[in-house]
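User: Some background: our group keeps a shared notebook of sequences we're curious about, and every so often someone picks one and asks for a predicted structure to add to the entry. Today it's my turn. The entry only has the sequence so far, pasted here. Could you supply the structure so I can complete it?
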Amino acid sequence: MKDWIGLAARLVTGGVWIVAGMLKVPDPAGSVRAVRAYDLLPESIVPTVGHALPILEVVVGLCLVLGLLTRAMAVVSAALFVAFIIGIASAWARGLEIDCGCFGGGGQLDGASAKYPGEIARDVGLLLASLWLVVRPRTRWSLDSLISPTRSGDLTDTDTLERDIDVEAQQGR
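Assistant: Of course. Here's the predicted structure to add to the notebook entry:
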């Protein structure tokens, strides 16, 4: 059952990253504008972050959907969601009215703060899915399983560890 939860976490989170990144790729200026609107980063790195973020989102999303480097990509995903949650919460706390830029757009937007609670809730949910994959990266239908199968067949890393602990306990170690 846990492998199926992981598969769902991989597909949903990866799908969100792919959509978010692909919507931004055709409009790099909009992505830079969205990063700038948060007024959190030094201006000298805003263009670099604005241009690199959509590409990173697509790469993380594709890797998660394919189940390739799942744990590493889940760590990157979780870190991005933490940054986005902090960014939205900071904009809210400072009274900024900006489009989050999560799926393109960005910049000033009247009434945007009404959307902040929902955006934070969405990102918290996706953060939890990413953290699930950090802890349990082995899922069904993943390239990771084909490239590096576990020694115990379909058991996940956590299942193997639990089995080894049980064996040691039975042997009185």
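Suggested note for the entry: Helices lie at 2-24, 28-37, 46-66, 70-93, 116-135, 143-147, 157-170. The longest strand covers residues 98-99.
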